[in-house]
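Narrative of accomplishments. A recurring question from our advisory board has been how the design workflow behaves on a single, concrete structure rather than in aggregate. To address it, we present the structure tokens for one chain from the evaluation set, followed by the sequence designed for it. No filtering or post-editing was applied between the two.
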């Protein structure tokens, strides 16, 4: 991605997707500020259409297709929020969406995708099977593949959440976002770089899937041996499009324990009275873990989503 064009791309994207997405609220909590010794501003993408920030990137990617591509539809592989985001964005724009989902994906997620008009193709629960199934659909239908996180138009779309946050609060010292596939943190970092005022982008991820932390240390994309974390949205891996942005523009990545994630999630539910998923709570957990870094600073937190299986709450 031409980084020098990121400012223009973010502003154009913001205007382009405006009719299709919500401008989500920024909430504060006096009690959580006291606990963190920081002044926190929560950008609540759990109030986004389909319940997560991914609606932004999916919408931008589809709107940038030409008319012929739109006629042939779009395809992705995802068992989570991007499956829902691409389905709803495609439906809103009048485009067919094919969603490859592993057979092991929870029925509640499949139902949500179908509810948004996505056509599900099931496959074996391996990355290889997902890629193969998506490729087959591309060949058969001519649909355009859109990656959930390693796509330039998706990254720019995700960055508009932080752009809005900085429009509302231009004097932030930090913006903290969770790291999974890398699309959100890369977009956030671009927004911080271009619209922040001496602001730093910080990533947060579980110790159990700390590939981004290690990648930042080694300078190359690392993998994970295990993915044993409650933050199911953060089990994916960085890609060659988003990693260079992360390397250049993310100041640090803070790792957190499973207990810290659950405690932060509970805190948000109890104190702010809003529903957030475990992956979202990772950002607050990072601030609470490293209080000294954020002490007396103004810190933005991207609440990435609120799609929770209420039958499986960790508290």
């Amino acid at each position: 991605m031409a980084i020098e064009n990121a400012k223009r791309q973010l502003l154009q994207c913001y205007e382009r997707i405006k009719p299709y997405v919500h401008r989500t609220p920024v909430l504060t909590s006096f009690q959580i500020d006291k606990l963190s010794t920081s002044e926190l501003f929560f950008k609540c993408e759990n109030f986004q259409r389909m319940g997560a920030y991914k609606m932004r990137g999916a919408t931008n990617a589809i709107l940038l297709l030409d008319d012929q591509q739109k006629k042939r539809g779009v395809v992705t592989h995802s068992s989570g929020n991007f499956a829902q985001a691409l389905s709803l964005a495609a439906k809103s724009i009048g485009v067919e969406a094919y969603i490859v989902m592993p057979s092991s994906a929870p029925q509640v997620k499949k139902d949500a995708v179908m509810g948004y008009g996505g056509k599900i193709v099931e496959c074996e629960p391996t990355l290889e099977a997902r890629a193969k199934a998506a490729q087959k659909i591309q060949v058969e239908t001519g649909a355009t593949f859109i990656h959930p996180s390693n796509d330039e138009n998706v990254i720019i779309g995700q960055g508009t959440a932080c752009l809005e946050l900085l429009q509302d609060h231009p004097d932030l010292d930090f913006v903290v976002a969770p790291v999974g596939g890398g699309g959100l943190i890369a977009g956030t970092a671009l927004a911080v770089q271009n619209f922040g005022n001496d602001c730093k982008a910080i990533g947060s991820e579980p110790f159990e899937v700390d590939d981004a932390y290690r990648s930042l240390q080694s300078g190359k994309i690392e993998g994970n041996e295990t993915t044993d974390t409650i933050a199911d949205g953060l089990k994916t891996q960085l890609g060659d499009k988003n990693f260079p942005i992360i390397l250049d523009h993310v100041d640090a990545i803070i790792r957190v324990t499973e207990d810290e994630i659950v405690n932060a999630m509970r805190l948000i539910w109890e104190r702010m009275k809003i529903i957030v998923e475990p992956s979202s709570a990772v950002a607050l957990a990072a601030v609470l873990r490293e209080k000294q870094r954020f002490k007396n600073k103004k810190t933005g937190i991207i609440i990435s989503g609120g799609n929770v299986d209420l039958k499986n709450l960790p508290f």
